[in-house]
Amino acid sequence: MKRLMWSSLLLLFTWGLSAQANAIDSYFQEYVEDEQFTVVYISPRVFRFVDDLTSKDGIEMDDEEAQAFIDVASDMRGLRILSTDVTPTKYYEEAISKIDTKLYETLITIRDRDGSRTELLLRENTDGKLEELLFLSHGDEEFTLMSFVGDLDLNKVMKLADEMEDDNKEE
Amino acid sequence: MDYNTIKALLNKYFEGESSLAEEQQLREYFQGEHIAEDLRQYQPLFGYFQKAKQQVTSEAFDQRMSRPISRPKRSLRLVYRWAAAAAVVLMLGAGWFFNQQVEDPGPTASAIDWSKYEPATEEEAIELARGAFIKTSNAMYKGLSTAAQEVENVKKIMDWE
């Protein structure tokens, strides 16, 4: 009986941990309400069926790329995209300054010669598991903010990039 | 003890006015051998003590008698068990409720109804997701390969020196 109590307590505790909101809910609500932003949300339901859907007609992918995509997608619990073509640089600066650097760790920062910038940030849970991957980028034309929620495997993400690179070489 | 005295005592007894000593007298009489014929009908009233004394209980009966003593204990434990189970269920329920609250935390995030931003079709959703993944993985690729390139460059410079 004691063990049951403890395990249920533990369950509650881990529930509490897993129930953290994503960065957009935490920092960028005003962007979602802003008419200038395009907002897209892709629910976990879609990723659960990604296997069946990619085999349907209308989505063209070669097998290896499709497999790499499915591998990444199967770990996903939600994807949120915000983008705007209005004052991208201003929004980028603002967004970067809003993110709590205690929670989010910078993975990659890219600054191109044309002034465009891309930043990848990670949030891990207390077990060191990846909870969220944040993508921010801006160029002259667009500011994009993407939040991938889920236990993403970065190796799988890299694999997808590899497949894409191979395609580009072949073309 | 003569018949008339007993008769008088019985009358007092039925009136409810007999004393304890008088009732004892009646008991002694009815437990005795010589009981007047017309008074025999009252014997069971006063003879029960004697009978109870003579009764011998069987072992099985003794066991049965002792069982109700242990049973309440067991059923009490059962009550605790149910109470604990109920508590666990309650806690899980509370946890679930709390969880709902946190995932959709109060006035701040409930303002975002994400479902209305979902693409109309699943194909479209997949296409968008694919685009998002590709952007991200390209950024990673670019970042890491540039980093690797730089490391190579640094190595070269070191070799030159």
Low-confidence stretches of chain B: 104-109
Residue fraction in strands of chain A: 25-35%
Structural class of chain B: mainly alpha
- Ends apart, CA distance between termini of chain A: 65 Å
What is the helix tally of chain A? 8
Share of helix of chain B, binned: over 70%
Number of strands of chain A: 6
Spell the H/E element sequence of chain A: HHHEHHHEHEEEEH
Which range does the strand content of chain B fall in?
Answer: under 5%
Mean pLDDT of chain B: 78
Q: How large, in whole angstroms, is the Cα Rg of chain B? A: 48 Å
Report the uncertain regions of chain A. Answer: none
**Percentage of residues assigned to helices of chain A:** 40-55%
How would you state the average pLDDT of chain A, rounded?
80
Provide the succession of SSEs of chain B.
HHHHHH
> Which class of secondary structure composition applies to the elements of chain A?
alpha+beta
Shape of chain B: rod-shaped
Could you please describe the fold and organization of this structure?
The complex is a heterodimer of chains A (171) and B (161). Chain A is of the alpha+beta class and 171 residues long. Chain A is 44% helix and 27% strand. Chain A is built from eight helices and six strands, in the order αααβαααβαββββα. A six-stranded antiparallel β-sheet of chain A has the order 1-2-6-5-4-3. The longest helix of chain A is centred in the first third of the chain and has 17 residues, at 2-18. Chain A is globular, with a radius of gyration of 18 Å. Chain B has 161 residues and is an all-alpha fold. In chain B, helix 1 (3-15) packs across helix 2 (20-31) and helix 2 (20-31) packs across helix 3. Chains A and B meet through helix 1, helix 2, helix 3, strand 1 and helix 5 of A and helix 4 and helix 6 of B.
Describe the secondary-structure layout.
The complex is a heterodimer of chains A (171) and B (161).
Chain A: H1 2-18, H2 23-27, H3 29-33, E1 38-42, H4 44-48, H5 50-54, H6 63-73, E2 76-84, H7 88-98, E3 105-111, E4 117-124, E5 130-138, E6 143-150, H8 154-170
Antiparallel strand pairs in A: 1-2, 2-6, 3-4, 4-5, 5-6
Chain B: H1 3-15, H2 20-31, H3 43-54, H4 59-103, H5 106-109, H6 122-160
Helix pairs in contact in B: 1-2, 2-3
